[in-house]
Design brief:
Helix content is 56%, strand content 6%. By secondary structure, it is mostly helical. Strands 1-2 form a two-stranded antiparallel sheet.
Length: 130
Amino acid sequence: GSGSFVDVRQVARAHLAAATRGRSGERYLLGGVNASFVELVFEVARQLDCPVRAREVPGWLMSAMARVKSGLGRLRGVEPDITPESAALVSGDEQVDSSRAVDELGLLVTPLPELIADTLTWMKEENLLP
């Protein structure tokens, strides 16, 4: 699957710009870099200098694994590491065309490596990562 990854600070700026410069009745999609989840995982691993064995798994297989793990989790009273809902999320193709927001609101699309670096820095400052 894939998603659109955007800097929350840019989303906040675009919301403010929409309130002052946006056209009445217009809709603005606030996405960012469109990338696969595999690309995302490998970039995070590269920046953390952490080996990863991620690879693409067919959506049907991930969905089946999620249903089994959820069932076992209910029996054992533990939270599964993947649920049918999370499998559906990462199997989907959720790319966004933000060109209108870029053109009319000044939305800045942060490159994925920079976006991840900023996120990891914030997570370390918040003691969410060692």
